[in-house]
Amino acid sequence: MAVDAGSREGRCRSDVTENRRHPSADAFFYPESCHPVSRRQVLIGAGTLLALGAVGRQVASAGDDGAAIIRQWATRPDDPWVVCHGVRAMGRDFSLKGGKRAVDWLLEAHLASAPANGGNLLAFPLAVEVHPNMFLKTFLEAGVPLDYAFTHEGRRRTVNELVEGARAVFRPSEVITQPNMLPWSLITFARTTSPLRGRWTNAWGEPVDLELVFDSALRLMEEASMPLMQAMREGRRETVKAPVHGFTCGGAHMLYGLLTGAWAGYAGQDRAERVQRQLDLMIWRLSADQGLIERFYRERANQPGSYWYELDAKLKLLGHGEECIAFATRRRVAKLTAGQQQQRNAAVTTLGRIIEDMEGRDLGEPLRLDQYLFSQLVGDTCHARHGLTLT
Q1: Cβ contacts of residue 302 below 8 Å, gap of 6+?
Q2: Which residues, in sequence order, are CB contacts of 342 under 8 Å at separation 6+?
Q3: Cα separation of 3 and 8, whole Å?
Q4: pTM of the complete model
Q5: What confidence tens digit (pLDDT) does each residue in 312-321 have?
Q6: pLDDT tens for residues 237-293?
Q7: C-alpha–C-alpha distance, residues 306 and 268, integer Å
Q8: How far apart are CA 293 and CA 251, in angstroms?
Q9: Is 32 in contact with 249 (CB distance < 8 Å)?
Q10: Angle at 200 between CA 197 and CA 201, to 5 degrees
């Protein structure tokens, strides 16, 4: 499929692929993450290591939801992706070391002018946020209002301008089959666009129908999850990965996007029931995926740092899974059976133990081992805290 050179999604598809592939990618159970890897990140990692060496061993104060880890490691202005995850975990008032509000710093320092069919608009570069609208949807979920004002290159701008820009450059033909480019836009548009206004024309004069986009996203999720759905129905354990394990963070972002759509009224004829089935599957996976993760790393027991890679895989699964479940239940998008609630409780208990274990360890160890792994650990802790404290 030809991609317009001026399209943000088109330009970024190759950028994201180029940035994300990590030399140790085979060490990760979930190969697709939401953190960029680039030469800049390698340099950032070196700088962080120098700072770490200057202050010695770094152990977070004990807690039960990861806040201590986040305050210590997500407040450094050397990785905007991690800082944005700090906003997700701690809310819109989250601040950097030194006291500057993280939302303001991200808006003022990291927005850039992006081309749109001959015009220009403000957007976060994909080299920074990786997935279109990841930072924007994080701000919206944290409660940053559309009329929130900030200064960019000497001009007063608002968050609503970012939303309008996102609508203008959204091209379904380029992302509708790309599960690792779509979920964050689903959340952005569901939160800012009533189903009554779910159709618009983008900057290229192409029609956008958000109902059709949600339908396509759900079909992607269903098809990629089919082997797991069959195993769950037959009472079998997972023996090999399914295509959905190749979705960003194992498909949790796609599920969260679909749940957000259902909550916002993009329910379709039978979409609510189908999304409920995907949530049922995620609850089953909280246990089933753990078994597969453990077998995956038993085969890699001699790999340097295997403890940390396995810990992060479980942290990613349980933290992102709890986010989905907490959102669905608190927003009354779905209901859990008594058995599912027991499964959830067991997963939350395990998640708490993982975080407690991390808080008692020196996170300089994974940082020295693999900067990418370290960023994943901090980012996944942020997702876990968001799920554990969602109101």
Answers
A1: none
A2: none
A3: 10
A4: 0.90
A5: 999 999 999 9
A6: 999 999 999 999 999 999 999 999 999 999 888 999 999 999 999 999 999 999 999
A7: 44
A8: 15
A9: yes
A10: 170
